Amino acid sequence: MYQISSPDISNMQFSAEVVSKSDDNDEEIGQTSISADINASGNELLREEEIDELLMHKKRVKTFDRIGPPIDAKSLENLSPKHSNILPSVSISETCSGSAGFARNEIRSEKSRIFKNETSRDDGQLVVEVEERILMEKNYTGSSSDEEESNEPAEQRLLGVPGKKKKKKGRTVPISVNPIYFVAILLFVFLGLFFWKKTWSKRTVSNFQLLKNNGTAPFAPTTILISLDGFRADFLDKGITPRLGSMVKEGVSPPYMRPSFPSVTFPNHYTLVTGLYPESHGIVGNRFWDKELKEEFIHTGPSALDPKWWGGEPIWVTAEKQGMKTAIHMWPGSEADIMDVKPTYLDNYDGKLPLSQKADRIMELLDMPGYVNDDTTLTRPQLIAAYVPNVDADCHLYGPESNEVLATIHEVDSMLEKVFVGLEKRNLTNIVNVVIVSDHGMATTDVSRMIQLEDLIDLDQVEHIDGWPLYGLHPKGEINKMYGRLSTLAEENGNFKVYLKDSNMPERFHFSNNHRIAPLWVVPNTGWAIATKKELDVKESIQRGIQYHPRGLHGYDNEHPLMRAIFIAKGPFFKQVPNSILEPFQNIEVYNIICDTLGLEPLPNNGTMRLPLVPTHQNGSEDNKSMKFNPELVSASMTLTQSIPSSEMPTSSGSMSSSTEIPKISATELHETAAVPEASKSPEIDTSWMSEKQKELLEWLRANADDMKSWLKDIAAGN
């Protein structure tokens, strides 16, 4: 007995057509007659095996409930033993389910029926019919074997005509994952995501993690931001600010910085630390009415500390949320618990604090220890923001061109000199960035440049009045009617302009997209002022020679030269060519710049500038000719300041004079708030080792990629 090979029928060299037509060709008849020589007992055994396999195939189809035509046993009737050698064997790779005994009994019954009814038939036709039936069963039931059988037509296979081979179908293997493997996969994915996040972290985060050493202690990048309220840009040309002049030559600064509109203190200080226009952060004036809250914001009142007024995110909140400690010294808005985040160190406003003590306070903060461990309670802040109100206060009191103001400007410059000397003694000039800014400029007032508000409108027709020296009006009645009258008077007078918030407000003001902005505005020309009779009777004051106070004012068009502010920066992030300058920019850019020096990721804002700041050209001698120090002028102005008591200065009665007083909120107190948990440690820890670990991990993954693939395949196979 010999073994029937796997059913590669295409290798058989005879035709089904010839088999069915044996009378046409003697040679082909001879080929089909070779089976007659096979031993009878062997033929019978082979025939039984083939029938067994076909019946088992039929049983498998029934067992798995697959759709397809059942095997018709009648196709095997009259099977002649002499043709059993050409009956293709079927390779069965899957075992049948169900009762084995029942299956065997059913197979025996089927075999007996076939043998009993066997009759003589045309051999070739029988073979073709059986072959087609087998192929049909395979195609309908989707049965598979370890060696996928061809789906070619039976006639093609029997004739030896090659057909297209189909790709082997994959076996469906149930996956059984060990829980340990599952946990390992999750851990691997987690580690991969962790290192990926570190590798692709935000672009500035790594800056503050790199520590520098001043020879005594490690320092993370640190920035000192100092605001000189009311410091007009051309004050630098007075020749009385040697320290600021040195910063201009050695650091980076534009000729001036534009404030935001309106050019008053609170809106602009909050713009400096948020990067938002006043219309965006909501502090639209020092005093304004909120029609939705039905409340009035007054910058000197206790209600101004309610966080509901303050939109946006100030830089100390940005820093604290990103794990950086901050120290805020009297900055407007810092005492409000904005977003429920306090600076780590907070100094409340104190208008009487001497300038020298401000410098001492900054050095005290720098002398704090860096982070060592969790037991360290007082650690050094990386952002120090300080507010200096002295120049603004004296400009209001004496006027910006007065000798008193010149003396104050020199005193402020001396305070800055003390800060820089302290940095030099601590070897921190190449570690700490110092940025000096101001919020607006200042214009001189005079009673001859006054407008009586009652001459313009009937105050009984106005529900609320915002602002000063510009006036925002909330009319009780028809707005357009009042606007029409004011527009006519503005054309006749020529010293003020009238704007409707929703109509002709200049786009460059960015002062219309907030419900807190009054619908109608009267904006005096720079140097002019508007007052109610309660504040000052203009005609009477001119007749009696009473001077209007305040002597200096701001709040005008933010692009007027007298409203220009300053931006001067020096430090490791501001090393430029000596005397280099930038093109002027608006103060919405400061927030991004300070964030970049500290490695903070700023929140979306109106600014677009980022570090490094690229200077446009160098200052020439013509630009710097007035920067030389003039000690005689300073000495004379200081003598004059000391000789005139402020109580002897004539002032007008009414609410206007009271509004010029320096805000007094509370005595100086150091508030140490709870540090931001966990995250506050990170700026003081050198994590540069992580980049090396990331490289090692990536190299290990590349080297073991094939092993990991095999491991995952084993898991999928249930091994």
UniProtKB/TrEMBL annotation:
<dbReference type="GO" id="GO:0017111">
    <property type="term" value="F:ribonucleoside triphosphate phosphatase activity"/>
</dbReference>
<keyword id="KW-1133">Transmembrane helix</keyword>
<protein>
    <submittedName>
        <fullName>Uncharacterized protein</fullName>
    </submittedName>
</protein>
<dbReference type="InterPro" id="IPR002591">
    <property type="entry name" value="Phosphodiest/P_Trfase"/>
</dbReference>
<keyword id="KW-0472">Membrane</keyword>
<feature type="region of interest" description="Disordered">
    <location>
        <begin position="139"/>
        <end position="169"/>
    </location>
</feature>
<dbReference type="GO" id="GO:0047429">
    <property type="term" value="F:nucleoside triphosphate diphosphatase activity"/>
</dbReference>
<dbReference type="Pfam" id="PF01663">
    <property type="entry name" value="Phosphodiest"/>
</dbReference>
<keyword id="KW-0812">Transmembrane</keyword>
<dbReference type="GO" id="GO:0009141">
    <property type="term" value="P:nucleoside triphosphate metabolic process"/>
</dbReference>
<feature type="region of interest" description="Disordered">
    <location>
        <begin position="1"/>
        <end position="33"/>
    </location>
</feature>
<feature type="compositionally biased region" description="Polar residues">
    <location>
        <begin position="1"/>
        <end position="14"/>
    </location>
</feature>
<feature type="transmembrane region" description="Helical">
    <location>
        <begin position="175"/>
        <end position="196"/>
    </location>
</feature>
<dbReference type="InterPro" id="IPR017850">
    <property type="entry name" value="Alkaline_phosphatase_core_sf"/>
</dbReference>
